[in-house]
Design goal:
Layout: E1 3-4, H1 7-29, E2 34-40, H2 44-60, E3 63-69, H3 75-87, E4 93-96, H4 106-112, H5 124-131, H6 140-151, E5 160-164, H7 171-180, E6 184-188, H8 195-200, E7 204-207, E8 225-228, E9 232-235, E10 242-245, H9 250-253, E11 259-260, H10 267-286
Parallel strand pairs: 1-11, 2-3, 2-4, 5-6, 5-7, 7-8, 8-11
Antiparallel strand pairs: 9-10
The chain binds NADP nicotinamide-adenine-dinucleotide phosphate.
NADP nicotinamide-adenine-dinucleotide phosphate (NAP) binds at residues 141, 164-167, 169-171, 188-192, 195, 208-211, 214, 229-231, 267-268, 271.
Length: 298
């Protein structure tokens, strides 16, 4: 039977350690860590993600500050808010919940975030450190995936790894992290020819294309590990109901693979947990606390 990489379970285990870490260090720091989340507009999925992040902060003892802005604010006003949060001593992390409405320049906003508070790891400085394989805040979804693989002692070094997708949020930073860990990485995208054949070479196949059920058994080598980053809400046959699915047609590949991530309950919870880790990492650095979290940042 293939192994389920249970992101929900691992995220709860890591959260328990984070909660302990905060309670044993809060006296030294004289305050708990603080995370500011900026949401712009009314995208319902973003609303759910922000709520989940707020709840996760509560569970471990991080103070969360939610800034929900209307989509008629100006770019300049968001930049000013970020500058203010950069200087706020109660805030260790600033997250801009993506996607934001198209009229905003998201990359410019991210570049305003102080790199030491950039808990999404997307600022040029943190991406640069990733390229150089230097310690820094790491983007959450890729770092969550690496921790999920490590939790089951799945070897990365020397393995053939194919990543579907080259976004700044997932595909590129993930490929770099895997490369830094000595995987032999192929990054693919919408213009890749014979995608199925390229994927079939992979010992570890990671699907982050944002295309429901793109990956079927013809993409998968016998005994491979398959990580599904995609998350899609589809109409269900049962009226008024929706169901979640990923980029992988799980029922088609499950008997073939050594290990897989479910959707939901695989990569998603780990993304949220890594946001907590990054926030605490920033707090830890600010107060010179013992650094027991560094292994979680690949
Ligand atoms: P994105 O910015 O839309 O990037 C998608 C990437 O996939 C692009 O590089 C695109 O190629 C490539 N692609 C699209 N269709 C393809 C195809 N048919 N064959 C090969 N490559 C293809 O998306 P993203 O932000 O990386 O997110 C990807 C998925 O992960 C989405 O479903 C998103 O909701 C999900 N996600 C989940 C989490 C989580 O925590 N579970 C976190 C982040 C994202 P081009 O570059 O050529 O356009």
């Amino acid at each position: 039977m293939s192994l389920k990489l249970d992101g929900k379970k691992l995220s709860l285990e890591i959260e328990a350690k984070l909660k302990n870490y905060i309670s044993s260090n809060r006296k030294i720091a004289k305050r708990v860590p603080g995370l500011a989340v900026i949401r712009i507009g009314e995208d319902p999925a973003s609303g759910v993600y922000v709520k989940n992040k707020e709840k996760a902060c509560n569970r471990v003892g991080i103070n969360s500050f939610i800034f929900h802005l209307k989509d008629n604010v100006e770019q300049k006003e968001v930049e000013e808010l970020i500058k203010k949060l950069n200087l706020d001593n109660d805030i260790d992390g600033i997250l801009l919940q993506l996607p934001i409405p198209k009229k905003f320049d998201d990359q410019r906003l991210i570049s305003y975030i102080n790199p030491s508070k950039d808990v999404d790891g997307l600022n040029e400085k943190n991406i640069g450190k990733l390229v150089k394989n230097e310690p820094a805040m790491r983007s959450c979804t890729p770092a969550g995936i690496i921790n999920l693989l490590r939790s089951q002692n799945i070897t990365i070094e020397g393995k053939k790894i194919v990543v579907i997708g080259r976004s700044l949020l997932v595909g590129k930073p993930l490929s770099l992290m895997l490369l830094n860990l000595n995987g032999t990485v192929t990054m693919t995208h919408s213009k890749t020819l014979n995608l199925d054949k390229v994927c079939k070479e992979a010992d570890i196949l990671i699907a982050a294309a944002g295309k429901p059920n793109l990956v079927n058994s013809s993409f998968v080598k016998e005994g491979a590990v398959i990580i599904d980053v995609g998350i899609h809400r589809l109409e269900s046959s049962d009226e008024n109901k929706t169901r979640l699915c990923g980029d992988v047609l799980l029922e088609d590949v499950i008997t073939k693979v050594f290990a897989y991530t479910p959707v939901p309950g695989g990569v998603g919870p780990m993304t949220v947990t890594m946001l907590l880790v990054n926030t605490i990492f920033s707090w830890q650095k600010q107060f010179g606390l013992s650094s027991t979290l560094n292994d979680l940042l690949p």
